Amino acid sequence: MKIMKFLIILLFICGCTPQQSKPQPQTIPPTPLPENGFLIIGHRGASAYAAGHTLAAYEMAVLMGADYIEIDLQMTKDGKLVALHDSVVTLHNAQQAVADVTFDEIQLLSPGKEFDKNHLSYTLPNFLELRIVDLSEILNYFGDRVNYYIEIKSPKVYPGIEEELLRQLQEHQLLNRVDPIPKVIIQSFNTKSLQEIFAMEPSIPLIKLYTFGKKAHLSKKELKELTEYASGVGVNVEAINRKFIDKMHSENLLVHPYTVNDEETMRSLMNYDVNGIFTDRPDVALRVRNEKNNTDIELYP
Ligand code: G3P
Ligand code: CA
């Protein structure tokens, strides 16, 4: 009997007795960063060198050292998540909403031809054969060898886009993994859409996008709401300054300015400790990042 009592006391001290589990408040998982702390996000792929949102542009971004390929998503009439920046396309000489046309109809567009008109110096002949692709083709092609930074565009026009996106990411086993940096980041200008994603899959880091007309600023109320679901902000680069970046960091929010293509701005932003940039030129960003890292090593051997 004495031994029994002793065992019960021991179990209690060790915390092994069954206890009522308290509901835990939901917390935002921190976004792990690579050692250099500066992510290169290939904006629509390496879109300075190939038509944006094509497999060629994404592949180039990867080859040029991008940490992420950035994908804008719209949804077609037949429910395909298509990689496209605009919610309206020109088909049969008429403007049509992506939501009103099928994915097959979208295939009539020639992104390489459009690119060819504007970027003659970089164009190769086979760029003319490039196609618009949907998310499933992108995920089948790249699998888990790349990291995805996905923007939900115009979610109000596409009911169910959040569920379909998560379904595909789950199907490809891209969620709830252990990786050096998150395999998937989701971004949107739409708060409600991000909150819906957070409610369904809180492990995905979320970035709230903003376009500020003047200096970037978020009120206390906005910050409070933001920190309940987001890991960071994506902001037009012209609007940010050191004060804003420091403020976001003090709230544990990452800062990813868009779209940065010149070396000088890249260097300044790195010195301001931003956490990454959207760029059409991942090769340039990689050179600047390497340069900075080497400089640091020389300064502090
Ligand atoms: O997603 C960040 C940045 O790409 C937002 O602008 O118009 O290029 O999608 P946009
Ligand atoms: Ca985007």
Describe this structure in words.
- The chain is an alpha/beta fold and 301 residues long.
- The chain has two domains: 43-160 and 179-188, TIM Barrel (Alpha-Beta Barrel), CATH 3.20.20; 205-301, Alpha-Beta Barrel (TIM Barrel).
- 35% of the residues lie in helices and 17% in strands.
- It is built from eleven helices and eleven strands.
- It has helices at residues 2-13, 55-63, 103-106, 111-118, 135-142, 161-171, 191-200, 220-227, 242-250, 263-271, 282-299; strands at residues 39-42, 68-75, 81-83, 88-91, 94-97, 148-152, 184-188, 206-210, 232-236, 254-258, 276-279.
- Strands 1, 2, 3, 6, 7, 8, 9, 10 and 11 form a nine-stranded mixed β-sheet that branches. The chain has a two-stranded antiparallel ribbon with strand order 4-5.
- The longest helix is centred in the C-terminal third of the chain and has 18 residues, at 282-299.
- The protein is globular.
- The termini are far apart.
- Mean pLDDT is 87; it is low at 3-26 and 297-301.
- The chain binds SN-glycerol-3-phosphate and calcium ion.
- Residues 43, 72, 85, 151, 187, 209, 234, 258, 278 line the site of SN-glycerol-3-phosphate.
Layout of helices and strands:
Layout: H1 2-13, E1 39-42, H2 55-63, E2 68-75, E3 81-83, E4 88-91, E5 94-97, H3 103-106, H4 111-118, H5 135-142, E6 148-152, H6 161-171, E7 184-188, H7 191-200, E8 206-210, H8 220-227, E9 232-236, H9 242-250, E10 254-258, H10 263-271, E11 276-279, H11 282-299
Parallel strand pairs: 1-2, 1-11, 2-6, 6-7, 7-8, 8-9, 9-10
Antiparallel strand pairs: 2-3, 4-5
Helix pairs in contact: 10-11
The structure holds SN-glycerol-3-phosphate and calcium ion.
